[in-house]
Amino acid sequence: MAKDNQTSEFEEKVLYINRCAKVVKGGRKFSFSALILIGDSNGRVGYGFAKANEVSDAIRKGSEAAKKNIITFDIDNGTIPHEIFVSWDGAKLLMKPAREGTGVIAGGKIRSVFELAGIKNIVAKSQGSSNPINQVKATFKALKMLKMKKDILSERGV
C-alpha cells in the first residue's frame, strides 16, 4: 500500500511509442516499444524503455522500469548550475543555464525531461542523432554529471 503513495508523487508521460514488425512464416508479427518518463518536478526524474505485444503492456512495463531508474540532481534557482556538453551514441547535447524568465528552450523529448525534472530556465541544443531514446539517455547522462559549486569547492578543500 505504501507503493501507491510513492508512485502518486511522480508525474508520468509517454514520450515515444514505436511499432516493430517481425516477419515470420505466417506473415508479420507486430510488437510495440514504449519510452516512458516520470518525474516529480523537484530534481528527481527517471526513464524506462520496454517492449511488449500490446501498447498498454509496453507502457506499464516502461513505467515500472522508469521507477527503478530514477536519478536525483541539484537545481540551482530553477536552472542547472553550469554549462555542459554531452554525447551519447550519436546524440550530442549542449545545455546552458539561463536567467529567470527565460523558460525551457529545448526541442522535443529533451524539453519533456526538463519539465518533469523541475528545471524552469534552461537553453539546450540537440545536435546529431534525432533518435528519442538516445536524446533522453544523453540528457540523463548530462544531469548525472552536474555538480553544484559548493560541492566542487568542498572536494578541493577550499
Describe it.
This protein has two domains: 2-71, Double Stranded RNA Binding Domain, CATH 3.30.160; 73-149, 2-Layer Sandwich (Ribosomal Protein S5, domain 2). The chain is built from five helices and eight strands; from the N terminus they run H-E-E-E-H-E-E-E-E-H-E-H-H. The chain has helices at 2-8, 55-68, 108-117, 132-145, 149-156; strands at 11-24, 27-39, 44-52, 70-72, 84-88, 91-97, 104-105, 122-128. A four-stranded antiparallel sheet has the order 1-2-3-4, with helices on both faces. Strands 5-6-8-7 form a four-stranded mixed sheet. Helix 3 (108-117) packs across helix 4 (132-145). The chain starts with a helix and ends with a helix.
How helix-rich are the residues, as a percent range?
A: 25-40%
Number of helices: 5
| Total domain count | 2
Gyration radius (Cα, Å) is 18 Å
CATH architecture classification name of the largest domain: 2-Layer Sandwich
- Largest sheet, described in full? 4 strands, antiparallel
- Portion in beta strands: 35-45%
Record field, number of beta strands = 8
The CATH topology of the largest domain, please? Ribosomal Protein S5, domain 2
CATH class of the largest domain: Alpha Beta
Shape: elongated
Distance between the termini: 46 Å
Sum this structure up briefly.
The chain has 158 residues and is an alpha+beta fold.
Please render the helix and strand layout as text.
Layout: H1 2-8, E1 11-24, E2 27-39, E3 44-52, H2 55-68, E4 70-72, E5 84-88, E6 91-97, E7 104-105, H3 108-117, E8 122-128, H4 132-145, H5 149-156
Parallel strand pairs: 7-8
Antiparallel strand pairs: 1-2, 2-3, 3-4, 5-6, 6-8
Helix pairs in contact: 3-4
